[in-house]
Every structure is written in structure tokens, then in C-alpha cells.
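Handout, section B. The chain below has 308 residues.
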Amino acid sequence: MADHDVIIVGSGLAGLTAGLFAARYGLSTLVLEANIPGGDLISIEKIEDFPGFPDGIPGYELCPNLQRQVADQGAEFQRTEVLSVEAEDRFWSVVTSEERYRAKAVIVATGSTLKELDVPGAVKFQRKGVSHCASCDGPLYNGQVVGVVGGGDSALQEALTLTNFTERIILFHHAAAFSAQHAYQKGILGHSKIEVRYQNVVEEILGDDGVTGVRIRDAATAEKAQIDLGGVFVYVGLKPNTAFLKNTLHLSDTGHIPTDVWMRTERPGLYAVGDIRQDSPAQAITSAGEGATAAIAAYRYIKEIFRE
């Protein structure tokens, strides 16, 4: 069993920033991640709202730069899947698919997964025309008409990315107004390649071997129509990756983790940061701030509880 002061589960912006501050405070720090460090941001072509980058910065630059900064401060990285987090006297045991680790404090930063549309065809056509990544799959639709479903920051941001590849984008949103930042709305509403359809509900994704279109319903008039599309990009919310904690913590009805302002959960020495946290703003900059906050709180906790 390997011992550390702090183990961080997840290496998105929240987890990496937690690792940076934990290491800078002199704590032996291990970051565990099942996937590529950087989380969902790694595929974002241009992050426009992170302070200090007036021209924006790609996620595939920001996240690796931060990972290198964390490693330079002495934090260790291990690629493995965490199965559970268990209390063990004053310590925490982190069980992975390969090993069991022990720490004085654990910071959970596992991020979220994009939700699927709960309609026929959404699962059937995954990777056959249904996507969640414009920068990854956009080039496959060069010169085609595609649909984007959603009305938040991610939907509008990815729709703008798709304009680099596709002939036209139809943006379907079930409500009468977007919830995204005004800056993204300005870019969408003024773009010649993007057609916005408010109060349009996607009821089915159509196709044979791949996506050929969608069936929609106008929420205002109840009229239905079929729209031909080459692909569909879905951004209808997030599902927190917290199922592995169901026997450790009380989770909200949506699977989020309640914390206080210091990112402390109901269990001493266990912290949660980023968009898995209940009432999180779910923004890159706030996730980074939460990671730093949790690391400082963990440092103070360790100094108080583990007096040496």
C-alpha cells in the first residue's frame, strides 16, 4: 500500500490546480486519472473566458501546461481507474483497479459526463453520426449540414467550432432563450452559417447505418417536422462522475456532492471540487479556484489532525 499526504482523484482543471497547490504546500501528492489529463477541456479548441488569455487558449495547450507545472512541483501522476474511496481510521484508502493507496486527505475532482438525449436513436447512433465533440468529429462533416442540440455554453461554443468545417449548422433549443453567456450568443446570432430554432424539441434521431436526420416538435405550436442532417452534436447537460462514492458520501438527487465553502464534504479529510460539487458554477475558472481552495483546506486539516 502506497502512502501519500493527499490523493487527488481526477485531473481536469480542478484536479490539476488542487495538485499544484497541494505540492506547493509541501504535501506528498498523487494524482490518479483514468483518462487523459485535462478532462473535457482538452478537446476545446478555444477557451475564451479564462483570465489572462485575451485571445483565448486551446484546452489542449492550457491543460498540458498545467500538468507540467504540477509535475514540476513534485506531484506524481498515475493512470488508473478509481473504484472506491474508503475510510480507514484517520486515513483514506483509495482503491483502484490495480492497487490500494492510502492518504491523509482525498480531493475528488472526477468531473462530469455529457448527458445523452433521452430519445430513440441517441444511443443507437453513437459514433455513427451522434457526437459530443466538435473539434474531434467536426472534420468528418466537411461541407455537410449538421444539428446541434442544446442552449448552454457548451452547445453554443461547439456550434461555433463546427462553422470551421460544416456548410451549415441548425441549432435546436427546447426553450425560448439560451442560457449561455451573452458573448457566445452574440457569436451565434450573428453567424451566417448558423440557423437557430428556439422551442424546437428533438424527439428522435433518424437513420439506417448512420444518422440521416432528426424528427422535431415545435413546443409552441406542437407541429412536427423531419430535418435532414449529416450528424447531430448533443450538449444537453452534465452527469457527475460520482457513482463510485455512493457508499461513502450522501449524494444529491442529481448525484452531486454537497460541500461547504472550503470544499469539505460531510466526511473529515474528504473534499470535492469542480462540476461534481453541488451548486458549482461549472466554469473553468471556478473549478480551478475550487481546486486551490480544497488543497489549502487539506493542508490545514493535515497539519491539525496529523501533528508530528
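Note. The chain has a mean pLDDT of 95. Compare this with the example in section A.
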